[in-house]
């Protein structure tokens, strides 16, 4: 039966089909964000995949190991650069050594600490170029030098948190593997893995036996790169202009100013602990800034800021679970940290406004003065890590019974004393009790003004 599909009409919707040659790998011709290798070399040493997590799993499966090999994994890693290596170690019976950090407030990938973990059995070291929690930049070249003292040791760097902020010269860094995700570099959901040409013979091909194995992509990519998304990458690269190094340098300078504004504000509040590099120097950090506020949950804080303003940032462990649990010692890793991260398109004016939003919040959570009638508040009585029972006081039933302010105070003290609750949530309290009095004499850690 003849096709009812108008093939010519269908083809007319695809402009690329109207040229003689349909070339679907433009991105392979550009320098794909890595600076150092020439374009021809790039074709050989890059693999494109759907995510950094997937690419590193492919790499871990394809890399050749020997019995007795040791893997050294940084606790600062996003899990994407840890779980592939942990899985392969379990499967092959290899040893995993953890590279931790001594300062829980400013954890770093310290080459000196690394040295003591390395031996001639070391096959791989995996660490981040910048932590997606702390924003701190790791001294990758120094680390590579320490790793390469051992002849079989390879260095695998996760560049996802750094790549949106800096141009990456894989040759100058002397890394063996380097991965990042295009969706963090203003592009589509694709990721890219580099493997130094000197290690290609150490990677087995995952492809069918009859397929060529000349390039990294042929070895690691189980299908073809997603053509449609890959086509968009040259457009992203074009965004950096004819002199990308200058553009990147300008971005870094601008971001340094942004991070300085926020870091100064955070440092001025004694209840806020920044986790990561305290200096705003662009040599030391990228604008990924995480912090915890003593006595306040990270998720609650983010929700509250979102409720009051147009700012959107995140809380949680952002898949760097081991860093927050094992290095920083956070008790509630799921609640995690508050993380604010900027890109070069953020403006100083907006970052200052963010500070103002937080300052407003600071005022309303201070001594409890001046809360308007009809306000709904949450009182955090103490920092006891007891089971949280939220007691709702419905104004008709309970507040009515507590006619005076001192009754209320005694009730709150009673709850705190009996450890019944960590949070006592009081609805419409001020409707019944004028609370313009000073609550500072109570052992309140904070009072959240929820709604006026
Ligand atoms: C530092 C870091 N590494 C790896 C990843 C995972 O990237 P992908 O989603 O491409 O697997 C992320 C994602 O946020 C990240 O921040």
Automatic annotation (TrEMBL):
InterPro entries (alphabetical): Aminotrans_V_dom, PyrdxlP-dep_Trfase, PyrdxlP-dep_Trfase_major, PyrdxlP-dep_Trfase_small
Which chain regions cross the lipid bilayer?
none
* Residues annotated as domain Aminotransferase class V: 47-354
Q: Name one Pfam family in it.
A: Aminotran_5
* Name of protein: Aminotransferase class V domain-containing protein
Query: What organism is recorded for this protein?
Result: Penicillium egyptiacum
């Amino acid at each position: 039966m003849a096709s009812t599909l108008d093939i010519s009409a269908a083809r007319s919707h695809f402009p690329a089909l109207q040229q003689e040659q349909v070339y679907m790998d433009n991105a392979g011709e550009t320098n794909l964000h890595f600076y150092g290798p020439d374009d021809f070399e790039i074709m050989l040493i890059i693999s494109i995949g759907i995510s950094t997590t997937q690419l590193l799993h492919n790499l871990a499966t394809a890399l050749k190991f020997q019995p007795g090999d040791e893997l050294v994994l940084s606790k600062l890693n996003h899990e994407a650069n840890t779980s592939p290596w942990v899985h392969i170690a379990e499967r092959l019976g290899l040893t995993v050594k953890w590279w931790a950090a001594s300062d829980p407030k400013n954890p770093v990938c310290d080459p000196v600490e690394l040295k003591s973990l390395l031996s001639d059995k070391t096959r791989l070291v995996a660490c981040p170029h910048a932590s997606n929690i702390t924003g701190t930049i790791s001294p990758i070249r120094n680390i590579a030098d320490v790793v390469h003292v051992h002849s079989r040791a390879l260095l695998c760097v996760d560049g996802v948190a750094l790549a949106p902020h800096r141009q990456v010269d894989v040759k100058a860094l002397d890394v063996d593997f380097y991965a990042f995700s295009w969706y963090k570099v203003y592009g589509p959901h694709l990721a890219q893995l580099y493997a130094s040409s000197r290690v290609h013979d150490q990677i087995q091909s995952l492809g069918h036996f009859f397929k060529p194995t000349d390039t990294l992509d042929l070895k690691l990519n189980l299908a073809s790169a997603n053509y449609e998304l890959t086509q968009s990458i040259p457009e992203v690269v074009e965004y950096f202009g004819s002199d990308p190094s200058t553009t990147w340098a300008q971005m870094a300078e601008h971001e340094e100013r942004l991070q300085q504004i926020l870091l100064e504000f955070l440092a001025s509040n004694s209840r806020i602990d920044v986790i990561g590099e305290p200096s705003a120097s662009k040599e030391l950090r990228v604008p990924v800034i995480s912090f915890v506020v003593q006595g306040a949950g990270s998720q609650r804080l983010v929700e509250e800021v979102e409720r009051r303003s147009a700012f959107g940032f995140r809380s949680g462990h952002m898949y760097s679970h081991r860093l927050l649990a094992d290095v920083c010692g956070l008790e509630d890793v799921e609640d995690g940290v508050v993380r604010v991260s900027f890109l070069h398109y953020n403006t100083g004016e907006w970052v200052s406004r963010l500070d103002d939003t937080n300052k407003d919040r600071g005022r309303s959570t201070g001594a409890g003065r001046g809360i308007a009638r009809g306000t709904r508040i949450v009182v955090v009585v103490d920092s006891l890590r007891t089971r949280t029972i939220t007691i709702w006081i419905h104004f008709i039933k309970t507040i009515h019974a507590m006619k005076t302010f001192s009754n209320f105070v005694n009730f709150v003290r009673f709850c705190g004393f009996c450890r019944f609750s960590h949070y006592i949530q009081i609805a419409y309290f001020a409707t019944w009790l004028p609370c313009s009095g000073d609550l500072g004499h109570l052992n309140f850690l904070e009072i959240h003004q929820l709604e006026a």
